[in-house]
Specification:
By secondary structure, the chain is α/β, with parallel strands linked by helices. Helices cover 39% and strands 20% of the residues. The radius of gyration is 18 Å and the shape is elongated.
Length: 220
């Protein structure tokens, strides 16, 4: 799942992007509404996380910009815990959910998946091709060989393949799914992740198409 995190430069929490990536999200981080709109014009996001805990008027300006531009991406606004009036304002301006800071990352993860379920997003449903099943809510993958929990990047890579069974994804396609655009792409990361997924779930779950990329089989 790819999310856009909008944080004011003065209130940026450096731990949040890392924590989200640890839960399997690909995170792009920006610090203002205009940059957020540019990012949304060039990338497809499953959700927008808007940190307005310190500057609720400025944060709601970003939310208004997104909605006026026709953006229908699900939005979770983070406000100061106990600030009921701020949460009401955010919901009235078009937020889909609000969360008071500080919060447990488990709660944010659960709210993101609940939001996906409510909106019928495909990322919330079980993904299966008859041989392999991936549960985005638990990040557990099941095959005939095993049932295993995946690391954040293992999950992001396998989810990208499972959402397009039968399609061949190149290295660049998969790198785009496992890295935010501010991350440094590690050499041979895709090959390493495919190796670890195969080791956990069986060598046949991901097929290599020599010189082109990788794929999982279509449902029978």
């Amino acid at each position: 799942m790819r999310v856009l995190l909008v944080e004011d430069g003065h209130s940026a929490d450096e731990s949040m992007p890392q924590a989200l990536m640890g839960y399997g999200y690909v995170v792009d981080l920006v610090q203002d509404g205009k940059t957020a709109l540019v990012s949304m014009s060039t990338h497809v996001y499953d959700a927008l996380l808007l940190d307005a805990a310190r500057h609720i008027p400025r944060g709601l300006d970003v939310l208004r910009m997104v909605r006026r531009a026709g953006g229908h991406v699900p939005v979770i606004v983070m406000t100061t815990r106990g600030a009921t009036a701020d949460r009401i304002r955010a919901l009235n301006e078009g937020a889909d959910d609000c969360l008071g800071k500080p919060f447990d990352m488990l709660e944010l993860d659960a709210r993101l998946h609940a939001l996906m379920r409510r909106l019928g997003a495909r990322s919330a449903a079980l993904l299966t091709n008859g041989v392999l099943t991936l549960n985005p809510a638990t990040r557990e993958a099941r095959s005939d060989a095993a049932a295993m929990r995946l690391s954040g990047r293992e999950f992001a890579l396998l989810q990208a393949l499972m959402m397009r069974p039968g399609a061949i994804l190149s290295r660049a396609d998969l790198e785009d799914c496992i890295y935010g655009w501010t991350d440094e792409v590690e050499s041979n990361a895709v090959e390493f992740l495919i190796h670890t997924v195969r080791k956990k779930l069986g060598a046949e779950v991901i097929r290599n198409v020599r010189g082109v990329g990788w794929m999982v089989s279509r449902p029978a």
